[in-house]
Amino acid sequence: MQKAQTGVCAEPNLHGLTLLCNVMTDDVDGLRRKLGRMPIILDELDERFSEAMLNGFVAIGSDYWDIVYPEQRPLYLQAFPELRDDDREAPRQPFDILLHIRSDRFDANFLAARALIEWFGHDIEIVEQIRTFRYLDGRDLLGFIDAPDNPRGLRKREVALVNASEEPAFAAGSYLLLQKFRHDLRRWEHIGPQRQEQLMGREKVSGERLSEAEIESVTHASKTRLLDQNEQPIPLLRQNMPWGDLREQGLLAMYCSNQPKKVVEWLKRRYYADSQGDYDPLLDFTQAVTNASFFIPSPTFLLKHGQPATDSESQTA
Questions:
Q1: What pLDDT shows up at residue 37?
Q2: Which pLDDT value is given to residue 309?
Q3: Which of 120, 124, 136, 151 has the alpha carbon at shortest distance from 237?
Q4: Source organism's superkingdom (predicted)?
Q5: Quick check: 315 pLDDT over 50?
Q6: For a designed S-S bond to 62, which of 12, 95, 222, 293 qualifies (C-beta 3.0 to 4.6 A apart)?
Q7: C-beta contacts of 275-284 below 8 A and 24+ residues apart
């Protein structure tokens, strides 16, 4: 069984650092070689900071994939969909590479990120860096338990990783849809806990769903349930973490899946009003300001394609 990059199915950590980057070099062969060593470097950093449970991954943007790996493309890799309905929107911003690091020590993340940036040198530039953190007992800054229905244990691999029988070249990889939400916490806190529970469809402390008798209107829980229109499970692993400071705050949502088309339909259900005019009510209090689509290759794929071509391969090409 092929292994995935360590950060895809990892357990929650205390600190995270996500770097959204663009490539600045035309030396694609050299960049492939550097990408090929990424999982090895992360493993070495994990050994250095073993008590910190360091993990991470590198992901390739949908728009850049054909430049760096033109021979093969993941079957379902598409640009992030333009979601827009009324005043709800999620504009997409393409990035070439995403570097994601998590651990239980912020200094370990910082040192690991510096090591990776040094490794890439001037080949990439950081467009945005997002420092994330665990809030209380795994809650969003809105005060509710984040993704209480997230898969656990081996189920994570089943929903997040590409199956070798379906896409053998990309086995143990994962499709990633990213949304950086900015919350309006002042407005959210103004409505009070009881109204918040009605909008979320869950109890604030326990995270349990409210009974149908208690619910007054459409809820976030109903619009984000992991079942499609045919009542079939939506394969989705959320590796979300809050971000922010005292000026602005939000949630970095990272959706890993082996069937991204179903995740896109799940997102559309949230953004687009249905025949009754209902949409995810939480979107009245938060906006996704950064949205992008990536693929997270397996270490095997990265290493294989990062090796220099032999003379015979070069002549064939």
A1: 95
A2: 60
A3: 151
A4: Bacteria
A5: no
A6: 293
A7: 276/218, 278/217, 278/218, 278/223, 279/85, 279/88, 279/218, 279/223, 280/220, 280/223, 280/224, 281/199, 281/217, 281/218, 281/219, 281/220, 281/223, 282/142, 282/199, 282/200, 282/220, 283/88
